[in-house]
Amino acid sequence: MAVQGQSTPGVDTFPGAASTGHAPTPTLHPGDVPVVSATTRLVAGMDLGSTAMKMLVTDEAGAELVTAQVETPWRPGAGGAAEMDSATLLDAVQRLVSAASSMAAELTDAPIEAVAISGMGETGMLIDAEGVAQAPAFAWYDPRGAAQVMALPASIRSAFAGRTGLPLGSQVTVAKLAYLRDGGLDLSGLRWLNLPEFAAMSLGGHVALEQSLTSRTGLIDLDTGEPWTAMLDELGVDETFLPPRVGAGAVLGRAASPALPANLVGAMLTVAGHDHLVAAEADGPLPSGHYHVSMGTAEVLLRVIDEPLGFEARSRLAGHLINEVQHVVPGKHVLVAGVKSGLLLRRVLQSAGIRDRQGRDRLDAEVFGLPYEGNLAPGGLAVSGARNDDGVLRLNIGSDGVSPAEIFAAVLRHSNDEIGALIWAMDQELTPARSSSLTGGWAGMASVRRARERVLPALTTSNRAQETAYGAARTACRLLRSNPTNPSS
Prior knowledge:
The chain is of the alpha/beta class. Helices cover 31% and strands 21% of the residues.
């Protein structure tokens, strides 16, 4: 198995690590300091993720210079609820950009000329005419809205997957919008922004929606690319609810917030798109017949397609919890399938008291030292919970000798089974893929790579620490072509 890419110097975080607070975490250590001239052109990529928000500064050639990270400031609630208000979010964004910009300023007087923002789908803010948020943002995994989904008219429920490409459930944005409507919020006159677009607006950008993120809301008809009027009518809004839609990488203005660091003021702003799609394109266009697997809290399997599959195929794939959405590449669509293997693996680490990289690495060595099938007798240990509509780690222990390593290995086998089922479903609609690539924090573990080689074809692995932020930074680099002069020159 080939290994490609470079890791970010000094990265000490790992999947499953416990948060240590809200202070920005730099990943540039003494001894790692690169030499940067004042004529170097700098860009930044931001990744507004479910667990943490990251900002990576690179030069125009893609050399990684500094990274900052803050915890995503969710406010947890009962039954798995998680939300954040706009003030808390914007405070976290401000701390993030200040930390990354300050570290960059220590290396060079060159300004950051472009910033591209990526992030999670489904989550966003409802804003009024002045751009002020009128409700909190809900996490994509927040279960609220399930009752509203069940109450949708039969005509919408039956057509939803075929129209939007998304399985109907509480994860989709429209479920949260219906929940807020039923809670008394008048949606008329408001506008929707996905989280990266709201962050871009807060930094001084124009109000606009990026296509790949917006196609995850349940408000877009994939065959026409236009708003699905039946869904808008059900919510009690019209097409003005959706601001103008633009492609990934479109210039949305320049950073102009008075609180920004001096080396960031004037930077071109753009939204790079949905995080998994941006990560998939970090090293260039994905080849046809290829799976890109991004393994974080969720493990996401992507496959680019040249045109929409159509209503019937989308309806069949939705039965397997597989999405079809618009890609960040113009004219392309992408199939998105997921399992919650990273979530289960994190819970195995936490239940074993593993909170640092050294402990994780020791467990990795123990798992890799086991046979792939483990050493337990058949029926000695059964695991479930990786399916994308689940996420609850369940263990059925039928013998002695069950160790954390055996449990970890069993989760890998179980998630392999779930991935195999998703690949089978996609193979019914498309010619089977011939190659695959694995990225994300868990890809650094030898035991994970060994497991995924059994289910993914011709697998290669990237050990880049911040794949999404790097992909966003490459999007920012493309903006420099429209502005060839370095302002510091």
